[in-house]
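User: Sequence for DUF4166 domain-containing protein below. Tokens please.
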Amino acid sequence: MIYEKLLGESFQRLHPKLQERYALPLNEPFQATGMMQTIETGSNLLHPFYRLATKFHFLFPESGRNVPFTLRNVCKQMDNGDYEVEWERAFYFGDKVRRFDALMTVDTERHIVKDYLGTPALFYSDLHFSVTKEGRLLIRSGLQRFVAKKFEMKIPPCLEGRVIVEEGYDDALQVYTIHVSIMNPLVGRLMLYAGQFTPVD
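Assistant: Structure tokens for DUF4166 domain-containing protein:
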């Protein structure tokens, strides 16, 4: 619902399966299971930060190949009448489960998605949505802030985690595809993951 409102006419250029996935009727969850062919985190020097982030269901220190994961999205209406989408991702490293949560709302005046990352939120990022000529969904991050309860502080550009997400659909394999890259100008890769998933009831 909120993504169709954000993309406008461009929404119709998404692959039909992506239109189906991002329609997200109110209170009707989209749930999926899949496999991340690769998950790569950054330098060992970042592990203290990753360990802190895991407490907020955000980033995590593990890397791996062929990592099972689950995804759940649901659109809800808030008390002020606006809509928000809950994102819940769980990655299964053996008997260890890592989560990556977010809450998204649309800012219609600025034409961006407002993304609060973590539970409770640890970071905020503007997200810019567009559709590629192949019908894939492309998401890029913009302005970012550190969040501590009701306090928010802008993150200097040199400390940002610059995000690029590309989601598509493979007609031959009949699976959704996802590729996420989070990079920092100073230390390089913060996280990269790429994989496939299919919906479940």
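The radius of gyration is 16 Å.
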